[in-house]
Amino acid sequence: MSQAPQPLGSPVVRREGRDKVTGAARYAAEHSPPGCLYAWAVPATVVRGRITAIHTDEALALPGVHTVLTHENAPKLKQSDDPALAVLQDDRVPHRGRQVALVVADTLEAAREGAEAVRIEYESAGHDVRLTEDHPGLYTPQTVNGGYPAVRERGDFDRAFAVSPVQVDVTYTLGPLHNHPMEPHASTARWADDGQLTVYDSSQGTGTVRDTLATVFALRPDQVTVVSEHVGGGFGSKGTARPQAVLAAMAARHTGRPVKLALPRRELPAVVGHRAPTVQRVRLGAEFDGTLTSLAHEIVTHTSTVKEFVEQAAVPARTMYSSGHSRTVHRVAALDVPSPSWMRAPGEAPGMYALESAMDELAVALGIDPVELRLRNDPAYEPDTGRPFSSRGLAACLEEGAARFGWYDRDPRPAVRIEGPLLLGTGVASATYPVYIAGSSASAHAAADGTYRIRINATDIGTGARTVLAQIAASVLDTPVADVRIDIGSSALPAAPLAGGSAGTASWGWSVHKASTALVRHLRERTGPLPDEGVTVTADTAEDTAVESPYARHAFGAHFAEVAVDTRTGEVRMRRMLGVFAAGRILNSRTARSQFIGGMIMGLGMALTEGSTIDPVFGDFTQNDLASYHVPVCADVPQIEAHWIDEDDPHLNPMGSKGIGEIGIVGAAAALGNAVRHATGARLRNLPLTPDKLLPYLP
Fold it and tell me: Which of 51, 167, 466, 666 could, after both became Cys, cross-link 431 (CB 3.0–4.6 A)?
């Protein structure tokens, strides 16, 4: 007898979990077609210049080496909309680490040995890799990531700020940050005799990669199949096609055999994107009662000379708090550095660190509790657009979090809570992330044996997409989740957007819900038994999602943190951390909690451990592996909790859900930074808060 249907919200166990822990799940580099060769890239060793000679004789003489691809013999590619993918096409070196040759061999070891034997001569040119807030090359772009205008002004900020009785004018700096997914970027490519290209790729969206490969190799999209059945993390760095997919396909075409390319971790920072450094000036003007009168958030950041990418770090300030006058500006300098790209919660994560730290500084200046200050400036409508919020649970998150955390029991005075050599402090910060939903398509199939099958080109990057989509379908079909099979992760499936922008479940789920609803309707209208082959219906939400909402749609949250600062060593340890979120209807409490906590831990790394620097001489990232780029480990996370409020928002999608993948990181770093200030009395404005920065301020 089948079990009863499990409703949405239930903590259904991740259905691919056993495959992953037993090794049955196969990732991109674990596909080995017959005759598969291995590739290893050769990165450029100069910051900027051009190649004058490439010597491949020694490499080609090594046993097992088949070929060395360079700009002199590599297949020529058509231009795509991402210039970073034009690998091995000319002699230009735009930044250190750019792939300038590819060795293909029988074994991984032979390919690596061959790469070390390739000798390249360069003509170096002068370079500029240092971002400063007054860089002479700064310019204002038209738009920033997400299509937002780079500049927005409302009212007369200069006048309003000048007459504000209480003013905060502060600058925060963040260095580069890196995604570093557990599974490095990898691709296995093979060409069939009929010209069909199949690529197993570590990607957040196979449809996007398919379209890109079709463009650069002058193929029709139906001639390319990209498969990303299991992906070991991406955090934005696998959001679009990356060079390894192009290189693997290029080498497979050149050799006539399948080729596998997995990038070494130390090469990832140079070729798959990073969060660009920012210098952020925040100015807040307020009345003595805490009412904001003026707000300015101005960003300086870098991009590469290859392509423009600018994080929308000032955009959250357009949504968060009421103020009659505001200015938000982004400026960027094109430097000789690797191209930045998406990293979890791009824009919101660095921008809200600065804004929420400045709000804490304003609370101190006013002598108002930081939670109360935020509540006093909670707007009834979106300040930037004037649209009503579809739902805005920030106040509820702050109030619920304060109660759970015991916030009001604290002594607001800094540096007074002492345990031996430790200074203890608590901090709070708000969080926001927009609701993104894109058109998607799905099919729903009813089999004669009473089971169902959903097909959709979603991608599970470790978030539990398979499980939640099965729950959505099962809830509509009124059947146990175990009776619903989910096919995802291939461009051969019904088209769907990539896993990014916390839009996956909201987008894919809508089409799964629509297809399942259509299937139920079809089955009700049908008479007689199902045919042996079953019945299939399809659905598409392109028109549904194309309608512009009259509402401002955002998720919100509140972070509370307690830290201990060791006055002897300068070390900061997070003691406990709480996040409370308002993200619409929670579809699976188990996977949702995992997502929230994962984001919070990433914010912990941003605040306390993750630091990266660009060497001004060599132009590369000094911290290029997990021995030097310190991500949090279990010992860094003694107590962390995630909760959410019940939020009924009918203006989103049929499930009433908002994205949760990124809201967890937004604001987390600010809460920890504010806790460090409360513990020590010292306000540091440069992340991460490492011992060397804190020690000069400790007794």
Answer: 666
Three-state secondary-structure class, residue 524: helix
Q: H-type helices in 535-622, by residue range?
A: 542-546, 589-608
* Integer Cα distance of 668 and 559 in angstroms: 6
Token readout for 591 is 């996977």
Confirm if 86 and 28 have CB atoms less than 8 A apart: no
β partners of residue 557:
431, 581
Counting residues of the chain whose pLDDT is more than 70, the rounded percentage is 99
Q: How far apart are CA 101 and CA 273, in angstroms?
A: 20
- Smallest CA-to-CA distance from 552 within 649, 439, 646, 644 is with 649
CA distance 549 to 390: 9
From CA 667, how far away is CA 555, in angstroms rounded? 13
Q: How confident is the model at residue 7 (pLDDT cuts 50, 70, 90)?
A: confident
Report residue 159 as tokens.
């006048």
SS3 state at 580: strand
Residue 3: the pLDDT is 63
User: Which residues of 214-274 form beta strands (DSSP E)?
Assistant: 224-227, 259-262
88-102, 324-338, 518-532: lowest mean pLDDT where? 518-532
**End-to-end distance of the chain based on CA atoms, in angstroms?**
68
State the residue for tokens 């139920």.
520
Catalytic residue among 16, 229, 308, 662: 662
Q: Is 141 exposed, middle or buried (0-12, 13-18, 19+ CB in 10 A)?
A: middle
Is-catalytic flag, 662? yes
How many angstroms separate the CA atoms of 682 and 698, rounded?
8
Mean pLDDT of the chain: 97
CA nearest 672: which of 628, 627, 640, 629? 640
List Cβ neighbours of 663 (8 Å cut-off, separation of 6 or more).
345, 431, 432, 433, 502, 555, 556, 557, 581, 583, 596, 599
